[in-house]
Amino acid sequence: MTSDVGEAEMLKAVFLPFPMTSHTINIVDTARLFAMHDVDVTIITTPGNAQIFQTSIDHHDSGHIRTHLVNFPQIPGLPKGFEILNSHTPPHLVPHIFKGLSLLQDPIQQLFATMKPDFIVSDMFFPWSANAAEESGIPHLIYLVGGYIAMSAHNSVEQFAPHTKVDSDSEPFLLPGLPHKLQMTRLQLPFHAREHNVLAHTMKAVHESIKKSYGSLVNSFSEIDGIYEEHYKTTTGTKSWGIGPASLWVSQDASDKDVRGCAIKEEREPGGWRSWLDSKTEDSVLYVCFGSMNKFSTSQLVEIAHALEEFGHDFIWVVGKFEEQSENEGENGFLKEFENRGYLIRGWAPQLLILEHPAIGGVVTHCGWNTTLESIIAGLPMATMPLFAEQFYNEKLLVDVLGIGVSVGVKKWKNWTEVGDEIVRREDIVKAIALLMGGGEEALEMRRRVRALSDAAKKTIQPGGSSHTKVKGLIDELKAFKLQKVYHKINGVA
Ligand code: UDP
Asked: Mapping DSSP to helix (H, G, I), strand (E, B) and coil, where does residue 190 land?
């Protein structure tokens, strides 16, 4: 993909990932995608966050991408080494980490001024970066994590407050102004959409920063939510580019996929999964994973375990550190008994590799945006069990818009730091996975649809494909912007 581009012509970009595992994986894939297109990329982050992706960067052969480390500030009460947010972050340390992150603003702003990039791409959760870029006269692209449907749904709730017009938390309402009739309940909306809390304040700042930015980037592609891309651009009057799926552009070989999301070898699943899967027949195994942030109560884990047992087919379940959690809560090692009924992964799963194995036939997912895209790329239908963030909106895309998912029927949004008080019952999980993995017409239809979308994902990043065209168009636009700046400087135009 790389070609020879003269130094003067080469665009210089700075990428600023937010230290949540999936946010970082997502934006780093996109940073690598720009490096593949001859943009000289520097990722600014802290040493702890670099551990998520440094191996992937080292793997990159273009030489156009590097990491610039900024030390995480010392915060009273925050033990050294805690600087990222994921399922292992003790909830009481979360405010301290946010405090530390807020103190990174000055040093990073100084780096913008000294590095003088031609453009900055920053995670939406660093809304201050739009002002900082503006002060330095640098175009700023805000990286929106999630798909367009979630942004449009969020804006619909903000603008029309449909949840205030129903009588109870469980009464369904339509999200007004959207291209499809999508129904939600008040309980499924994020807390910050229902009440004024800290995150509501942050989201307000995010939306202000979108208006100040040159535009936004979204890891999505026209064939899955192009209607919402248009809707989002029209209703907000902002520029935006859906340039995904980024992982498909950049994670091309097995060794690359193996290290994605976790640069620490000891934390990664050792690899027995492959021979286990090799012994299974095509489309016969269910992959169960709830992302990098989630915590479940022991009762919920027990329900999932029993559902998988009752379902009676093969599965891979990424349980992560859940076992420790359940031991702490006193239900000693129920997962141990469960060990031989499927393949349990306790470390970091090489998700991209597992999903593309022919034996995998379906996914149980929390509808995290990355997993949503990755399952579509792999042509796998999903049983949807959303938990937090924008995942209930993503569920709508999978089940109601694209028809490639079966809802398990989660009723209540929870915060990612909490286990939540809703227990999704085993019978509801079994019903969804039995439909998903069964040979009925509905299941076959879903499988056909998701395979067509998988093909579309592969085409969209090829020359002439919509994401390919958008990436090229954006790079050309940024080059023209750079040339115009140089011209103005030479000619003394203000
Ligand atoms: N992931 C992985 N191995 C794991 C758990 C997660 O590779 O054991 C990756 C997964 O492929 C995806 C990301 O982590 O890219 C999770 O992102 P998603 O948006 O699906 O969920 P979140 O972590 O934000 O809840």
From this structure: coil
Q: Is 23 assigned a catalytic role? A: yes
- Residues 78 and 198 occupy one common structural domain: yes
Quote the pTM value: 0.95
Q: Report yes or no on 257 lying in a domain.
A: no
The helix (H) or strand (E) run that includes residue 302 is helix 298-311
* Inter-residue contact 48 to 26 (CB < 8 Å): no
User: Do 289 and 143 sit in the same domain of this protein?
Assistant: no
Residue range of the domain that includes 444? 264-457
d(CA 446, CA 381): 6
Cβ neighbours for 142, distance < 8 A, ≥ 6 positions apart = 121, 122, 124, 127, 129, 130, 206, 209, 210, 213, 215, 216, 217
357 and 453 co-located in one domain:
yes
Domain assignment present for residue 256? The answer is no
How many independent structural domains does the chain possess? 2
268 and 231 in one domain? Answer: no
Q: What is the pLDDT of residue 14?
A: 98
DSSP conformation letters of 2-47? -----TTTS-EEEEE--SBHHHHHHHHHHHHHHHHTT-EEEEEE-H
Beta carbons within 8 Å of 161's beta carbon, 6+ residues apart: none
Identify whether residues 452 and 364 lie together within a single domain: yes
SS3 (DSSP) at 364: strand
Same domain for 485 and 411: no
CA of residue 365 to ligand 1 center, whole Å: 10
Pair 236, 342 in one domain: no
Q: What is the pLDDT of residues 404-433, one digit of tens each?
A: 999 999 999 999 999 999 999 999 999 999
Say what percent of the chain tops pLDDT 90: 77
**What 3-state DSSP class applies to 212?**
helix
Active site annotation includes 4:
no
Average pLDDT (465-469) is 98
Same domain, 451 and 468: no
Ligand 1 atom with minimal separation from the 145 CA = 19
Residues with CB under 6 A from ligand 1: 21-22, 25, 261, 289, 291-293, 318, 348-349, 351, 368-371, 374
- Among 40, 123, 225, 258, which one carries the catalytic annotation? 123
Q: Give the closest residue to 100 by CA, choosing from 26, 143, 47.
A: 47
CATH number at residue 423: 3.40.50.2000
